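User: Hi! I'm working on a homework problem where we have to compare a predicted structure to a textbook description. Could you give me the structure for the chain below?
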Amino acid sequence: MYKKEYNTVLKEYFRVALHSGIYLIFRLIGFIYFPILENYIPKKGKIIDLGCGYGFFDNLLYLISKDRRIYAYDFIEKRLRIARLVNKDKKIKFIQSDILSFRQKKCDCIFMIDTLCYLDNYQKLKLIKRCYNALKDKKFLIIKDLRKKPIIKYILLSIQEFISNNIRIILGEKNWGKVYRNKLFILGDRDLCMFVKELKFRFVKKIVFANSFYPDVLYIFKKT
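Assistant: Happy to help. Predicted structure tokens:
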């Protein structure tokens, strides 16, 4: 599902910047979760992506439905420049900013993919509070995160993260060194759910992707 759209967007990344296309091929091995993500993100309305990176999912979501008003945040401008070049009609707002200080109101959906794992508990709490205040009532907060189980996948992930993230710093993504501190801050399932429910989100669903190369998990929460 969405394979045609996926290939269309990926080709644009190869056209704009070869290295971004190569990076995305490896990063998107776990693309199996996208159809579920797409199912919970409204086809129109104000959508927020926190920690968008190269903006692949934003460009893909917009290709599927151009009624989406997408605001995508990251603070590495080098990546955002590539994301803007792929978005030919300039309808997606790619914003360079620290996601901990993003400011939006009356949002129809907020999602983050592999973002929380780089934040310590204080930062997680601060960010999720901002998400709660930014969302309309009964709208979704979607978190795609990582788990520490199965242990072999977690070990392989940790090695891959250490190598790839230090390569990013060497290649000139200097701000990335402020985010990546040579470790991942992964909460257990119960801890994360309790953490979010304390802020008056209602837990809707948790999906573990056993067939994914990475220890991927998707959480769906709704603002009450």
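For your comparison, note the following. The chain has one domain: 3-223. Strands lie at 45-50, 68-74, 93-96, 107-113, 135-146, 201-208, 216-223. Good luck with the assignment!
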